[in-house]
Structures are given as C-alpha cells and as structure tokens.
Amino acid sequence: MKAVVLYASADDFATTAPAHFPAHKVRIDEFHARGDLLLVGVFGDPRTQGSMAVFRSRESAEAFVAEDPFVLNGVVKSYEIRDWNEILTP
C-alpha cells in the first residue's frame, strides 16, 4: 500500500511559496533519492487546487510532512494523508 498526501494551499501561497521552495525541494530530492517519494506535483491551479505527492508508505508520507518547510511555514493551510491501493504497476 502506498500513501498520497494532498496539500491545500494557503491563501498567500503565491507570496510565501517562493521563499520556502528551496528547502522544500531539498526535502523532495532527499525522499525521492532514497525511494520514499514516487511522484509529486501541483494541480492545474495550485492556489485553488493544491498539490499531491505519492509515497512508498504511510510512514514515509508522515515523515515528510512532519518537517516539510511548506507545512512548518504555513505555505499550505492543511494536508491529508490517504492510504492508496495501486492497481496498475509498471
């Protein structure tokens, strides 16, 4: 079972995200390099639709958000972790 993190952007996302993106990207790269983060990206309009990340496990997702600069600095107003049963695999 994998885990999906859904982020809801804060109202001031456009002004706060740039300041915290470099640290957020470092975290993305670290989790991806060790195989914990499989996919990550924003929806068509990240301000209103947010973003999503797919993790190898719920534990990986929880560890990521626990110290994610976007969470810690209010770039996102909320997040939800959902367990996800992948049907098709490469």
From TrEMBL:
A Pfam family reported for this protein in Swiss-Prot or TrEMBL: YCII
InterPro entries: Dimeric_a/b-barrel, YCII
The YCII-related domain, residue ranges: 1-85
Family recorded in the similarity comment: Belongs to the YciI family.
Protein name, per record: YCII-related domain-containing protein
Organism encoding this protein: Dactylosporangium darangshiense
Lineage: Bacteria, Bacillati, Actinomycetota, Actinomycetes, Micromonosporales
